[in-house]
Amino acid sequence: MIPPPLEDRLCSIKSVLEMEVDSRSSTKITKVFDLKAQYKALAAGCDITMNGNFQDPKVADWLLDPDAKVKRFDEMVKGQFTPQESDLLQGLRECFGEGSLSMTVQNAGSGQTRAALECVFTFHLMVKLSKLLEEQGLSTAFRNVEMPSLVALARLELNGAGFNPEECETQCQVMKDRLRMLEERAHKLAGHTFALNSTKAVDKVLYEEKKLEINEDPSTNSQPQERLSTSRKGVLEKLKTSHPLHPLPGVILKWKHISNLLNKVTPLQKKNVYNPRLNMDRIYSTCNLHTATGRVAFHDPNLQFIPKEFEIEMPTDTNNEDGPPAAGEETMSKRKVCMRHAFIPFKGGVILAADYSQLEVRIMAHLSKDSKLTQALNSGQDVFKAIASQWKGVAVEHVSDKLRQQAKQLYYGIIYGMGPKTLGEKLGVSKEEGKRRIETFKSSYTGIQRYRQTTVDQCKRNGYVQTMAERRRYLPDINGEDYYKLSQAERQAFNTTIQGSAADLVKKAMVLIDQRLQQEFPDTRRSHRHGESTAAAAGGLEFQIVNVLSADFCFLL
């Protein structure tokens, strides 16, 4: 029998998959393995937009064990089925990659055979996994948070972000020019050329040639510390502090900072793709939901690493008749660099961004019920200035930028479980001083410490922690005897409740906003960063969309 024409088959598929349903009340469920990839393939290749409620075994398997590695289709099937349950297992060979069996052409068998096997096993996989989700109280998070957010992220990936390569190159050139000047300055101070990106070369220049050492307190004659590799955090900062009259550590530190920023944005220039329909360049990033805490991670390229606006010191052109000034003697002025200017809307459009202010700090205040932290957030002032004010006992208006930064680093250091040594390196102080600052901070915010201990105790009893959406993370080492693994598990328990709950809230907001914008403004294009939702829309609609964004963001708080 001759199969019907491809166009007829696509029309039939389209009529089923695009059927309008009320996702809140409809019992229609489409079970799909690797939904995000299949959603994108149907939309981009067949002009089919899937509607309705979805279930993806990959997401269910991740929810059941978020720390496990991503399984291949055959691994998941063989982990849930016994050979006695289905003779079809004989036709299932080892798969390539982590995606769909049918869409991966390297897999054995014809496309029709692979698709048929995938359909049958996906259906039965979800029957088994749904029971496990129900038993562990994860069905609500799976149905109301994770699956809807996966669809929103699939659309986000399809939309991409408008990109101006010329603006990107302009911003990058400023950094490249400054790097070149700093490199020349470092070479002059060293007396010869050396590779600033080589830790071995930098160590040799600073320690062996310049005889620089790290002192705990440059104002005393304390014994110098053991030589630490300049690749470690805080070492160059300590060398700079220990030798304020020697500019070389500071020059290298500036070079490394700018070089690091440049390395984060360079991949953008290799990933822009021309979109003929929109007549513009766009960047299409890929998101990963398979993370231990549930935070969405982006890669290839990572748009979440795009730095905020910052300033670079550049020599001022003084038109000196005697020639250019010597390196290090130039009159410097500050030049702003903003890589986000390279991201643009479509022609005639505008970009709108909505952001939760200090979301994880607010989650911490909510969960810990710490009165001082709550007071700092409700004061209406800069939250980290307010925290620094409470911590040091000084008026908010007297909190310097440096003290604010120390309070911020200390706060996040405690949340992320940094020890005195690591925190000391980050703050540029000794291990003992790092320990003292941790203790004084903890004594100022006793509610945070109580909540941390309660979380660890509950995890020891249950073997897992839960986020606000009741997602679980199992931490078997929490009751182990290995001190290192036990300490890590305690940090993970505390951190997961904060970061994981923030991820839950952001996903809910993203889903709610995506649904509202799709209903009321179908031509908007959306993107996402940690705690932030971005939309590109036609000019003239921005005030209406702002009302939608602000209402839906606030609704979830």
Automatic annotation (TrEMBL):
Catalytic activity: DNA(n) + a 2'-deoxyribonucleoside 5'-triphosphate = DNA(n+1) + diphosphate
Keywords: DNA-directed DNA polymerase, Nucleotidyltransferase, Transferase
Catalytic activity, EC: 2.7.7.7
CDD domains: DNA_pol_A_theta
InterPro entries per UniProt: DNA-dir_DNA_pol_A_CS (IPR019760), DNA-dir_DNA_pol_A_palm_dom (IPR001098), DNA/RNA_pol_sf (IPR043502), DNA_polymerase_A (IPR002298), RNaseH_sf (IPR036397)
Gene Ontology biological-process annotations: DNA-templated DNA replication; double-strand break repair via alternative nonhomologous end joining
GO molecular-function terms, A-Z: DNA binding; DNA-directed DNA polymerase activity
Pfam families membership: DNA_pol_A (PF00476)
Keyword Cell membrane: no
Domain DNA-directed DNA polymerase family A palm residues, every copy: 339-528
Superkingdom of origin: Eukaryota
Record flagged with keyword Protein transport: no
Name assigned to this protein: DNA-directed DNA polymerase
Source species: Branchiostoma floridae (Florida lancelet)
Gene of this entry: LOC118407374
